[in-house]
Amino acid sequence: MTPSPSQSSPQSPGKSPGQSSTKWRLDGPLVSWGGALLITLLAFVLRVWRLGTPHSFAFDETYYAKHGWSLLHHGYVRNYVPEADQAILDGRTTDQWLGDPTMVVHPEVGKWLIGLGEGLFGMDPTGWRIASAVIGSLMVLLMCRFATRVTGSVFLGLVAGFLLSLDGLQLVLSRLALLDIFLAFFMLGGVHCVVADRQWFRRRLGAETVGAVGEAAGEPRAETLGWGPRLLLRPWLLAAGIWFGLAVGTKWTALYPLAAFGLWLWLSNAHARHQIGVRWAHARSALMDGIPAFLHLVGVAFIVYVLSWTGWLMHADEYEQHLSNTQYTTYDGGEQWPSAVEDDKDGLGEVTQSLRSLGSYHRDMWNFHTKFLNDATHPYASKPSGWLLMNRPVAVDAQLDIAPGTDGCDAEEGSTCMRQVLLLGNPLLWWGGCVALLASVVLWIGRRDWRFGIPVIGVASTWLPWLQYDDRTIFLFYAITILPFVVLSLVLCLGALLGPSTQPSPRRTGAAVVGGVFVLAVVIAFVFFWPIWTDQLITHSEWMQRMWLKDWI
How many C-alpha atoms does 61 have within 13 Å on its Cβ side? Predict the structure, then answer.
């Protein structure tokens, strides 16, 4: 049984958004968790099937796979010999790393996870991709739980997880040793916990307010009429800080949704206090809720982020010696790191010196992203203004012109076969999601239903910041952080189409047909594009059938 997104919960501070539609939810944790785990298992099987193919370093795997191995075995990212790629593919992993560190331009959490997979399964394609496959599958489980929490419907939550598992970007990134699948997973966990904190806060606020009412007169106590209840310890927000710390520790772009949802949460808390009669609710909430929330969310995220650089900090002297005057430092006038020319400290002074060196290193990373890349070009670069429409995919691996009769190719004479791994989303899912996002904007404003604001804010914070870099070398697969909000928008709109009533009606029948046809179409598209997502052998004519837009070629 399926609900529409409820409108009553935003006006009821003490009520969870899912509680208003409890009678329409599928009952019990067995269906909720059991269904989510089954979908996750299916996603995992699809992601680990022939995980070791292609047997090569696909796209930027050449960096992150070796970085992960070096972190695991040396504690920091060492440089490597020029012929390291072929040696590793041949099974020779010793004597490939040099003693000096190499400049890396992304934080290290994702690379530590890649290295963990290599430690468990070996330094080969399966080893450096297994962490992505596990995290990508867990992201499906997280999507089920996140959508269930937002919609109040187990059914819609399961649909959301199923749709996420059918996307090409999510699938291919779950089969590659790139950082973006880790970023998307941690970011989704952070947003999930922020939404959970909103629900927890309103329940506690309602309970504290009811508890402050006098039994005889039925009037609130003075503290309720003034500032309202004090809710200083917020466990869900503490968890969100950890999630976001890991997300920023994978890629800095997680800072945008961290800021956006932090601001959204403060406004929501202020509105909740206004609803119980607190005057000057926004100003008072900035002190009562804003400061504790900032410490829980941003403060904890910062601590987690710094801790993720422990390996770097333990080898700061290596970086001071070899990378304190890099090509990226020249963008700041060629100044060497101040800490590099100081005498070595001991004890707490050494920690402070290492942290200052890490700060200088971050300055160089910033220069790389904001100045050095302005002059770079790439044939698969895409403008972020077209990401939602899947404007320009990335071919991470390709074997072209496989002759008939070789490698199983049964193409007609005069034609050839090929294999490809293409980072391209499921077009029907994304194009349908664009329509759903427009509807979400209308429903958020028109119905004043906060749930529709989540995908709108999510897409705005993970997509719009990229528009300022429209002329830089950036790629379509960065849009993986947008995907969960596209999916959430789809299931929210499906719930709105079904309506609040559970009784059979032409409306519910029509909505069920529309939703069922859309999901079936996404499944068919998934099967259709599967060969070019997973390096399958197809003829050139079969490949051309899948090139729906000219920019896909």
Answer: 29
In terms of domains, do 299 and 338 share one? Answer: no
- Are residues 250 and 269 located together in one domain of the fold? yes
Q: What is the pLDDT along the chain (553 residues), one digit of tens a residue?
A: 444 444 433 333 333 333 444 433 455 788 899 999 999 999 999 999 999 999 999 999 999 999 999 999 999 999 999 999 999 999 999 889 998 999 999 999 999 999 999 999 999 999 999 999 999 999 999 999 999 999 999 999 999 999 999 999 999 999 999 999 999 999 999 999 999 999 999 998 877 776 554 444 444 443 444 677 788 899 999 999 999 999 999 999 999 999 999 999 999 999 998 888 888 888 888 888 899 999 999 999 999 999 999 999 999 999 999 998 887 777 777 778 988 888 888 889 889 999 999 999 999 999 888 887 776 788 898 999 999 999 999 999 999 999 998 989 998 888 999 999 999 999 999 999 999 999 999 999 999 999 999 999 999 999 999 998 887 889 999 999 999 999 999 999 999 999 887 778 888 999 999 999 999 999 999 999 999 999 999 999 999 999 999 999 9
Residues 323 and 366 grouped into a single domain: yes
Residue 297 and residue 322 in one domain? no
| Tokens encoding 20 | 């208003």
What span, in angstroms and rounded, lies between the C-alpha atoms of 76 and 318? 9
76 domain-assigned: yes
For residues 361 and 346, membership in a common domain is answered with: yes
- Cβ atoms of residues 355 and 313 within 8 Å: yes
What is the DSSP-derived secondary structure letter of residue 330? G
Alpha helix ranges (H) inside 166-323:
168-173, 180-211, 222-225, 235-248, 255-275, 281-285, 291-294, 300-307, 310-314, 316-322
Residue pair 28/221 in contact by the 8 Å Cβ criterion: no
Give the end of a domain, one of 123, 141, 159. 123
Instruction: List the structure tokens of 278.
Output: 């607190």
- Strand, coil or helix: 170: helix
pLDDT tens, residue by residue, 16-27? 333 444 433 455
Structure tokens at 267: 């406004």
pLDDT digits (tens, 9 = 90+) for 262-305: 999 999 999 998 888 888 888 888 888 899 999 999 999 999 99
Spatial separation of the C-alpha atoms in residues 127 and 202, rounded to whole Å = 45
Q: Does a structural domain hold residue 471?
A: no
Residues spanned by the domain of 109: 61-123
Helix ranges restricted to H, 384-449: 427-447
Q: Which residues contact 45 (CB under 8 A, 6 or more apart)?
A: none
User: Cα–Cα distance between 450 and 440 in angstroms, integer?
Assistant: 10
- In this structure, the answer to whether residues 234 and 300 fall within a common structural domain is yes
The answer to whether residues 323 and 299 belong to one domain is: no
Of 319, 353, 375, which residue sits at a domain end?
375
Nearest partner of 4 among 335, 367, 32, 20, judged by Cα: 20
Structural domains of the chain, count:
3
Please check whether residue 529 lies inside any domain of the structure: no
Q: Are residues 353 and 297 in the same domain?
A: no
Residue 359: inside a domain, yes or no?
A: yes
User: For the purposes of burial, counting CB atoms within 10 Å of the CB of 120, is it exposed (0-12), middle (13-18) or buried (19 or more)?
Assistant: exposed
